[in-house]
Design goal:
It is a single chain. The chain is of the alpha/beta class and 206 residues long. It has a single domain, classed as Dihydrofolate Reductase, subunit A. It contains 7 helices and 11 strands. The chain has a 9-stranded mixed beta sheet with strand order 5-6-4-3-7-1-8-11-10, with helices on both faces. The protein has a two-stranded antiparallel sheet with strand order 2-9. A hairpin with a 4-residue loop joins strand 10 and strand 11. Helix 3 runs parallel beside helix 4. Pfam families: RibD_C (PF01872). This is Deaminase. One of its GO terms (biological process) is riboflavin biosynthetic process.
């Protein structure tokens, strides 16, 4: 049975991305600060099809486990537009459902990544992702507003956050607008690391 998950890095003061996001400035230019732990891992670069990274420990195992359990992705138009020009071919290796008002034919890449453009809401995207995932998990990739929509709809089963030891001071917060009474939350796992703290939460809808 598929679970609905998200897996996001944030700053210590809760920011998912910086200010002035655009395709020319993805994530507001803070990706290297928030995700430095990931860029340090061989598993991350293996997933992209490149050599790189200096470490292959608990962080790397976590990356591989998350990749292995994911069968489909959902993302917002803004995240897609920021990545479309720069992502390598076949980055996601699965079906990706993009929430948008734009009517567009699927973008079928070489390999196993296809982007589908969904114009009729998150429930439609979820239904299609479940079919594609074939029992694996559905990952809400981002951005923050898209994650918030799924949280507030009561659709998320668990999530992972990676708290970088930095303060950004401004930007886009991951949990802004969250319905605080929607779920009971339980900490399932804490993994310390040199560059982040991994936290896994289970959510039970009230």
């Amino acid at each position: 049975m598929s679970k609905v998950i998200f897996d996001s890095g944030i700053s210590l003061d809760g920011f998912f991305a910086g200010d002035n996001r655009s395709p020319q400035n993805p994530m507001g230019g803070v990706s290297g600060q928030i995700h430095s732990w990931m860029f340090n891992q061989k598993a991350f670069w293996e997933y992209l099809g490149f050599e790189g990274g200096r470490e292959d420990g608990a962080d790397g195992r976590y990356i591989r486990e998350t990749i292995a359990r994911t069968g489909a992705f959902i993302m917002g138009k803004r995240m897609f537009e920021e990545g479309e020009a720069s992502w390598p071919n076949d980055l996601y290796k699965a079906a990706v459902y993009v929430l948008t008002n734009e009517v567009r034919e699927p973008w079928i890449q070489e390999g196993t990544t296809t982007f589908y453009f969904i114009n009729n809401g998150i429930e439609s995207a979820m239904d299609k992702a479940r079919q594609s995932a074939k029992g694996k998990d559905i990952r809400i990739q981002g951005g923050a507003n898209t994650i918030q929509q799924f949280l507030n709809a009561g659709l998320v089963d668990e999530f992972f956050i990676h708290i970088a030891p930095i303060f950004l001071g401004s930007g886009i917060r991951l949990f802004d607008g969250m319905d605080k009474d929607k779920y009971d939350l339980q900490i399932e796992e804490v993994i310390p690391s040199d560059l982040t703290t991994h936290l896994k939460y289970k959510l039970t809808k009230k």
